[in-house]
């Protein structure tokens, strides 16, 4: 089976927009991801996002043990160009990335400038689960009062994200996908605190 580029990608795009406009909302990409063959070097939901976001006008970088394989796949399907992480429009941090790669990607990613804040990077981050891990308290645009989310990811990413997003409108947007084909968006405008365990 393969993705229907018109219908499947448009449906997935609507889910992405919903997740971005309502941070903390988990979107289910299982229907679209189920159309893809397994073992492409990344999660099926990641591949759906790559099909959607990459084209000839943008650049990307991959953090993965299978960087060469995944980079070649993304180039073939989109004709997007690979570049250094510090210059990339999209940075993919896959589940098999080295310890510390997520933190490095966040530190290296471009955050735009005051005249062109849109010249910033979006990170697509694979995690084991979006229903386990530390409980996060989200607030900001698109959230009435606050909402909760969970991300089972390596330690240290929250502090770096907060530092890089400290001077709005500069900052990074993060998209998390997990092994159950779920999507969580954390736009740069979303404030994230760790819930204290009582």
UniProtKB/TrEMBL annotation:
Task: Spell out the Pfam families in the cross-references.
Answer: PhnH
| Keyword entries, A-Z | Lyase
Note whether Protein biosynthesis occurs among the keywords. Answer: no
Q: Is DNA-binding one of the keywords?
A: no
Source organism superkingdom: Bacteria
The record's annotation in InterPro entries points to: PhnH-like_sp, Phosphonate_metab_PhnH
Cited NCBIfam families? PhnH_redo
Record-given protein name: Phosphonate C-P lyase system protein PhnH
Natural source organism = Paenibacillus marchantiophytorum
What gene is it encoded by? phnH
């Amino acid at each position: 089976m393969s993705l229907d580029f018109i219908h499947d990608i448009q449906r997935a795009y609507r889910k992405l927009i919903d997740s971005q406009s309502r941070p903390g909302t988990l979107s289910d990409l299982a229907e679209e991801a189920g159309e893809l063959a397994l073992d492409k070097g990344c999660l099926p939901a990641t591949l759906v996002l790559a099909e959607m976001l990459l084209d000839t006008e943008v650049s990307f970088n991959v953090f993965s043990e299978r960087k060469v394989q995944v980079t070649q796949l993304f180039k073939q399907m989109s004709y997007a160009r690979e570049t250094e992480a510090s210059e990339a429009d999209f940075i993919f941090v896959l589940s098999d990335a080295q310890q510390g790669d997520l933190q490095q990607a966040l530190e290296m990613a471009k955050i735009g400038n005051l005249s062109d804040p849109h010249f910033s990077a979006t990170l697509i981050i694979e995690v084991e689960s979006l229903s386990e891990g530390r409980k996060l308290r989200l607030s900001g645009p698109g959230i009435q009062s606050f909402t909760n989310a969970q991300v089972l990811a390596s330690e240290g990413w929250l502090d770096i994200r907060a530092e890089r997003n400290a001077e709005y409108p500069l900052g990074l947007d993060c998209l998390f996908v997990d092994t159950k084909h779920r999507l969580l968006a954390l736009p740069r405008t979303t404030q994230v605190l760790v819930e204290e365990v009582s």
